[in-house]
Amino acid sequence: MEYRLLGGSGFKVPVLTLGTGTFGGGNEFFKAWGASDVAEATRLVDICLEAGLTMFDSADIYSNGLAEEILGQAIKGRREQVLISTKGTFRSGPGPNDVGSSRFHLLRAVDASLQRLGTDYIDLYQLHGFDAQTPIEEVLRALDDLVRAGKVRYIGCSNFSGWHLMKSLAISEKYGLARYVAHQAYYSLIGRDYEWELMPLAIDQQVGCAVWSPLGWGRLTGKVRRGQPLPETSRLQSKLVTDIGPQVQDEYVYRVVDALDVVAQATGKTVPQVALNWLLQRPSVATVIIGARNEEQLRQNLGAVDWSLSPEQIARLDAASATPLAYPYWHQRGFAERNPPPV
Description:
- By secondary structure, this protein is an alpha/beta fold.
- The protein has a single domain (about 5-335), classed as NADP-dependent oxidoreductase domain (TIM Barrel).
- The chain is built from 13 helices and ten strands.
- The protein has helices spanning about 30, 40-50, 65-75, 105-115, 135-150, 160-175, 200-205, 240-245, 250-265, 270-280, 295-300, 310-320, 330-335; strands spanning about 5, 10-15, 15-20, 55, 85-90, 120-125, 150-160, 180-185, 210, 285-290.
């Protein structure tokens, strides 16, 4: 398993991370993802460690904290062998302060995550979303205090706009506070918006991308095809899941899957393995968060590493997944002599 530096830090992470959204199935939304209990989660962790995948990502809202609890049980007795990333910010209770990135909420959220995980430190703690109602200085000072207290090793964010992230980095620099080294962002062959603003920012400011939903919200598993019904176990069967996830035109998906089929046949790999490998060769990507309902899915996703697509295969996939740019990005691409694109 390859390890990469996370952003501008000295912290190395494996290029694949196991997401734990499939642990627990504690509500209808997460049941559509999976419902691994402690025994199955422990087996998945075993397989990951055997393959050199040592990082596990969770969040306090995954099955209302149950995913963190199950992860904590699955790694019990081997904390020093693993890296834990988790997230907070979204609503975790009924109270007025049970949401957001205020000092009040973040300090409580981290302590609660530590208790559920059964550990006294979190390797990477990320804000799950931007809180526009809390001053950024307050947010970063609270995170800096958590780092200084030893409860958190590194900090990151998730789902930020470019200006959210850049303003936060500027404030960290101004006041000498802990700095975001990671941005957990949606990125896939059928979701390339990340490349417009966030990728150039990540390269310039040395912020590593931790990719979430690399298979396009379950659309690039190889099981979603033109003229065929959705698999019964697909999360896309749940309207609750599809309403909140990225909206993608079916014909666009089919076009990309057609290109993936060609490359998969040429490489002897599966469609999801090709889609994941494409991401691993993109600028700024430090780690790709994979999910797995079961052992079979996990082993297939682990097959995305230790090989590389050819430049010609990458070009085929790039062309099939290309979409019109929004302004001002289409305008900037017209002046590439002084403003070259990152890819």
